[in-house]
Write a structure and sequence with these properties.
heterotrimer; A alpha/beta; B mainly alpha; C mainly alpha; B: MetI-like fold; 11 helices; C: mainly alpha; MetI-like fold; globular; AAA+_ATPase (chain A); ATP-binding (chain A)
Chain lengths: 269, 254, 250
């Protein structure tokens, strides 16, 4: 279980301080699929970096199974937005996926078996010997997902993972992620700016405001599973949920619940 | 920010101070004089004709060689890049001679032509020629095909195309070539002076070193280093000025 | 047709050299036949071990030291802005000294033996490697570092599997520059003062007025330059195969 309470993150200090996140509180239960949506420019990536231990919050806490995070934990794997930048072009697909396993599994045979299983899960069994730049964008992102899966995490964090692929590939990858979740039961936390995607994938959608971000509301997604790109999206309930999230995002943010001393931090002495 | 400003000054001073202390305490061999002695030599000799004579001789070798090498290199490079037959004719030869450093020809040149400034200039010019030739070649070849097509679509004449498309496109390459050529020309010029005993900084160094005038030797090295720093700075500034529009420089000004 | 055209000029040059020198009576311009004879006599056997091997060894050892030290310092300065700022004046000054100006001092300090030559070659070649490593390490995509950190790679793993491979193309470009400079330094140190080496033999042939030997030495040095450069390209192509193939795709 991942618990975030009163997370706040400010970059810089003094006159140049930029407050990316003001006040975030959320809980992700084991096995849950949570999507976080927010307008472009909300502190979504900042938040994910705090959640996976890459960034230290300015205040507030992130705890995993009751233990406060101190650096990247071994229970969390990340899939980054830009596959062309997050895969190592000097390694083959197999070595890319196997790289994080070096500290987990001593035996090379053990590592190879796990890499093979992960590649099979994303349908890339026959591409292990290729280099990332020999693959299409969608396939590269599948490699990144396989790398996350091979790590056998409790929680998979995905930062706008389908933002740089075309629409058809995007739908395929969404379904791939759903299938992987069903097969492995891994907890998923996915950040996106696409409302349809969030509603389609999630058990619960957390809506964030523009910077400085706060949680506007949480929407429970009670759509039946398994989901389907055509039939699920035709359901009247899908349209309702979608409208609900959209309304939340478009409504101007009210920060009345936050303490006053946070406001206009850049202008204060 | 304000606090870290003098950091480079502090570390440099600390390094120089350590050198001074080591030399004074006798931890360093006698052939390495204390920094203060080098500075003292520089101070008393900065006003002498001899030193500036040597500097100007080396600079003359450098400048004439650079102009010659750059001109010939650019012309041959441009000819190779734009006329296929010339390219085919010269490519094998260029590929063969390019990795041969010019100092290789020094003994034979000393034999044939004697130890003269002209020999220094000739060889240093050949050294400057290669980077210039190659950069021009790469530059013309790498002109963006879209830019080239655009120019053709708008019906630019050949001189217009050369002036407005080819020249600006290859300019970054030309400046890279210039910077490399300048460094290598100075390196080679000093080597020639050193070995051929042709008047200039190289020869001055050899004389001082072999006569055991160590403070003077290091003083001249400092001068040579500062010369290198100054030439680098001049070319970098020229480049930045001429390439303000280029992506690699645009961000710096933003 | 194309390949013939490429060979035309080199063939003409050699034929021209042969015919113009064949009947030459000038002591400075001996017949090419004599030069080749001197070449075969000296460089194919007699002086191979005594002069060619020491020259090449000094060059390679100097270059190797420069490469290792340059990468270590380059990575350190690339990782720490503070360190890079602190040492910037020293590095800028040292890299701007024309390397050949240091040859007399190296002889004064370390004599005329191998150590002296190797040291001065290494010092001068250090800077191209150092600066290109520094540049490469600074330019590494922060996303890759995030990946490495979030998957808990150790410092050593990050260095070996992320930092160095990412910097390798630029480091190789630096080593290639350094190789050219190392060759110049090798020849200059031997021409200045030495007791063996190809440059030494070539220059001392002048004193005994053995002109064909001088020409032969020049030819050998030229061939050596060409060979070393070609071997380096082969090595680069092997190590950076991924990079070359990736660049060719785009």
């Amino acid at each position: 279980m991942l618990t975030v309470s009163n997370l706040q993150k400010t970059y810089g200090s003094g006159d140049q301080a930029v407050e990316a996140i003001r006040d975030l509180t959320l809980t992700v239960d084991k096995g849950e699929f949570v999507c976080i949506v927010g307008p472009s420019g909300a502190g979504k990536s900042t938040m994910l970096k705090c959640l996976c231990g890459l960034l230290q919050p300015s205040s507030g806490t992130v705890t995993l199974n009751g233990v406060p995070l101190n650096g990247p934990p071994k229970e969390i794997a990340s899939v980054f937005q830009d596959y062309s930048r997050s895969l190592m072009p000097w390694f083959t697909v197999r070595r890319n996926v196997g790289l994080p396993l070096r500290n987990r599994h001593r035996s090379a045979a053990d590592r190879a078996a796990r890499v093979a299983t992960a590649l099979e899960a994303v349908g890339l069994t026959s591409f292990g010997g290729r280099y990332p730049w020999q693959l299409s964008g969608g396939m590269q992102q599948r490699v990144a997902i396989a790398r996350g899966l091979a790590y056998a995490p409790e929680i998979l964090l995905l930062d706008e993972p389908f933002a740089s692929v075309d629409a058809q590939t995007r739908a395929d990858l969404e379904d791939l992620i759903l299938r992987v979740r069903d097969d492995t039961g891994v907890t998923m936390l996915l950040v996106t700016h696409d409302i349809d995607e969030a509603v389609y994938l999630a058990d619960r959608v957390v809506v964030m405001s523009a910077r400085p971000s706060v949680v506007l509301d949480t929407v429970e997604v009670d759509l039946p599973r398994p989901r389907d790109q055509v039939t699920t999206k035709q359901l009247p309930r899908f349209a309702e949920l979608r409208a609900q999230v959209l309304t939340l995002i478009r409504r101007p943010a009210h920060h009345d619940s936050t303490p006053d001393h946070h406001s206009k931090i850049g202008e204060r002495r | 920010m304000r606090l870290t400003m003098p950091l480079p000054v502090l570390t440099t001073a600390a390094l120089l101070g350590t050198g001074e202390a080591l030399a004074r305490s006798g931890a360093l061999p006698a052939e390495i004089p204390p920094v203060s002695e080098i500075a003292g030599w520089l101070w008393t000799n900065l006003a002498t004709v001899d030193l500036w004579m040597a500097v100007s001789q080396t600079l003359t070798h450098w400048a004439v060689a650079l102009v010659l090498g750059v001109t010939v290199g650019t012309l041959v490079g441009a000819a190779m890049a734009s006329v296929p037959v010339v390219n085919e004719l010269l490519l094998g030869t260029v590929e063969f001679f390019r990795p041969i450093p010019v100092v290789v020809y020094l003994p034979i040149m000393l034999l044939l032509l004697g130890a003269r400034p002209a020999v220094v200039i000739l060889l240093a010019a050949v050294a400057a020629l290669w980077p210039m030739l190659l950069q021009t070649l790469y530059g013309v070849r790498d002109i963006d095909p879209v830019t080239r097509d655009t120019a053709r679509v708008f019906g630019l004449t050949t001189p217009q195309r050369l002036a407005w498309v080819t020249a600006p496109s290859i300019l970054p390459y030309v400046f890279t070539g210039l910077r490399i050529a300048s460094t290598i020309t100075l390196l080679v010029a000093i080597a020639m002076e050193l070995i051929g005993a042709v008047a200039g900084l190289g020869n001055t160094l050899a004389t001082y070193a072999s006569n055991g005038l160590y403070a003077a030797t290091y003083g001249v090295i400092v001068i040579a280093g500062l010369l290198g720093v100054a030439l680098n700075a001049v070319f970098e500034r020229l480049e930045r000025r001429a390439l303000r529009w280029h992506p690699s420089h645009r961000t710096q000004n933003a | 047709m194309r390949i013939y055209l490429r060979l035309l000029l080199p063939v003409l040059l050699v034929v021209g050299w042969w015919t113009t020198s064949a009947g030459s009576t000038s002591p400075f311009y001996p017949p090419l036949r004599d030069v080749l004879a001197a070449f075969g006599e000296s460089w194919l056997f007699a002086r191979l071990g005594s002069d060619l091997v020491p020259s090449v060894t000094r060059l390679l050892v100097g270059l190797l030291i420069a490469t290792l030290v340059g990468i270590v310092i380059g990575v350190a300065l690339g990782r720490s802005r503070l360190l890079a700022r602190a040492l910037n004046p020293v590095v800028q000054f040292c890299r701007s000294i024309p390397g050949t100006a240091l040859v007399p001092v190296s002889v004064v300090l370390f004599g005329i033996g191998d150590g002296s030559k190797i040291l001065v070659i290494a010092f001068v070649c250090l800077f191209p490697v150092l600066l290109s490593t520094l540049d490469a390490v600074r330019g590494i995509d922060p996303e890759l570092e995030d990946v490495a950190r979030s998957y808990r790679l150790t410092r050593a793993q990050r260095l070996a599997f992320v930092l160095l491979p990412a910097a390798a193309p630029q480091i190789f470009a630096g080593i290639r520059t350094a190789l050219g400079i190392a060759f110049i330094m090798m020849v200059v140190t031997e021409l200045y003062v030495a007791s063996n080496g190809v440059g030494f033999v070539t220059l001392s042939a002048r004193n005994s007025f053995d002109v064909p030997q001088m020409w032969a030495g020049t030819v050998l040095l030229g061939l050596l330059g060409v060979t070393l450069s070609a071997l380096f390209l082969v090595l680069q192509r092997r190590v950076l195969r991924w990079h070359i193939r990736m660049t060719e795709r785009n």
